[in-house]
Amino acid sequence: MPIDHLNTGTILTQILILFLLAAIGYVSGKTGYLPEKTGFVTSKLVMRITMPALILSKMLSADFSADNYFDGLKLMGIAFVFLLLIYVFTLPFTKIMKLEDKSRNVYSMQTLFGNVIFFAFPLFEALFGDIGVLYALFFNIGNDLLLWTLGVYLAGKHKGSGIANGLKHIFNANMIMFLVGTVLVLTKVSEKLRGGVLYQTVDMIGAATSPLSMLFIGLVLAGAKSGFFKNMGKKLVVVMMSVQKLLIAPILIGAILLFAVKQGWISDVVMMVAVMQFAMPVGTLTVSIAAEYDSDYEMAAQGVFVSTLLSIVTLPLIAYLIKLVL
Known about the structure:
The protein has 15 helices and no strands. It has helices at 8-30, 38-61, 66-96, 101-112, 120-128, 130-156, 164-167, 173-186, 189-193, 197-206, 209-222, 236-262, 268-278, 285-292, 297-325.
């Protein structure tokens, strides 16, 4: 997974491809070409069928060594620890802005949880191949541990909902397939399955993940109420949140991780993957969670829209800064 793959031109090209896919979903949803609930069905299809298949196919095909696994565990820990730190440092901002409880909790949730699946997996696969997806997966596990506990707590905090409601989502199809894949790799069974009928089947299904993920993002944006974006220029809070999510947090975290690289505690690959993941636009799942717990769904939708749009510029910039220091 060489650093040379992380060039701004390649990233910009891949982002534009992903945005074109999202645009197809947006237009299809906005014009009524696709039924209203297509986004919901697409999300379920990705999370329950194509994504687990993608994970298994990548684990069967990737040359994933013990060192790679160790790096993956570090990524999992980095995701968990730094997301907690971001939450702590975000609290003063939400109090200064004097937001309502529903909006304050959404602000905190969206500064934490990026699109580390629907957006990151296609991007990492395009940039780094199979091993890139697996590294992204390790980060996602650490992310999910907090998304379905702290994230759900924040979304339902204003009405006293506990985190127990989200715990059932942690042990999901993706986690199960990751564990199955790990066993197959450790027992060397993966080498026998590689190239066989089972592998070709899950690989074919998994290949649909990237386009379906981006179509889903477009459909989510298309499903937002028309009034959401009329006063977008006045929604400085959303812009501030996006800047914090896309630039401030990843740059500060990158500085800390760079020190860890210089000390030999982590590899440059771990730093590169972690910083890029922290720089992802706001996750679309935050909109669903906000709606589920009657939080500020409108602000959540705006956060996804603005941060995704800004990421066209910010992701190549973050990649450039990473290459500059490594």
